[in-house]
Amino acid sequence: MEDARAALSGSIELWKDLDPEDVKVPDFPTRISLSRLLMEADMEDDALEVLERLVGEDDSSVEAWYLGGWCLYLMSEKHRSSADFAAERKALMPLMQASREWLQNSLKLYRVLEYEDERLKEHAEELVQGLTKVLGPPTDGDEADEDKGDWEDEGSEDEEMEDT
User: Fold this and answer.
1) CB crowding 116-128: b at 16 or more within 10 Å, else e
2) What is the rounded distance in angstroms from the CA atom of residue 36 to the CA atom of residue 93?
3) In sequence order, which residues have a C-beta less than 8 Å from that of residue 70 and are 6 or more positions away?
4) Which of these, 94, 109, 99, lies nearest to 147 by C-alpha position?
5) Cα separation of 44 and 89, whole Å?
6) Does residue 87 carry a pLDDT above 70?
7) What 3-state DSSP class applies to 67?
8) Which residues contact 10 (CB under 8 A, 6 or more apart)?
9) 3-35, pLDDT tens digit by residue?
10) Of 103, 108, 154, which Cα lies nearest the Cα of 131?
11) Model pLDDT for residues 68-84, shown as the tens digit of each residue
């Protein structure tokens, strides 16, 4: 396992500070696979860094959002099992909330893009349900305002384009 971690770390070091357009940066599907390997090697911090970069490059990837949510979930579970949950609850809340947000984004994209991986959807829904049991339901302003803002922004951008 240590050899695998060293190899994974070494591969990331080769391209992580490069511009996304640089030819030395692995293609999107390769980095998706890399993030899975990093998670399997208990390298969640590195996996999340790769996934955040992927989402920054293409925020319509169902799999990147799902893996980011799963990664954050694993990170929260690791902390939860290694410490007194009652004492760590405040520290874990941001991780769990971020996990739920990433997973909900993946589910929204799943529906919009008519994605076909049913197992991914089922797992994301299961994780969201478990997180909601701990966190409670999302507050009214959390997602509705974000979604509304995204649509409004897109509409005003379209209107601006028409005026030019």
Assistant:
1) eeeebbebbeebb
2) 24
3) 39, 99, 103, 123, 124, 127
4) 109
5) 20
6) no
7) helix
8) none
9) 999 999 999 999 999 998 999 999 999 999 999
10) 103
11) 999 999 999 887 766 56
160: pLDDT confidence band, cut at 50, 70 and 90? very low
Q: How many CB atoms lie within 10 A of CB 98?
A: 18
Token pair of 13 as six digits: 């070091």
Tokens of 45: 């911090």
Q: What is the pLDDT of residues 99-136, one digit of tens each?
A: 999 999 999 999 999 999 999 999 999 999 999 998 88
Six token digits for residue 63: 């799999």
pLDDT of 93: 87
Looking at residue 136, its amino acid is: G
Alpha helices in the chain (DSSP H): 2-13, 28-40, 44-57, 62-82, 85-113, 118-135, 140-163
Closest residue by Cα to residue 36 from 67, 2, 75: 67
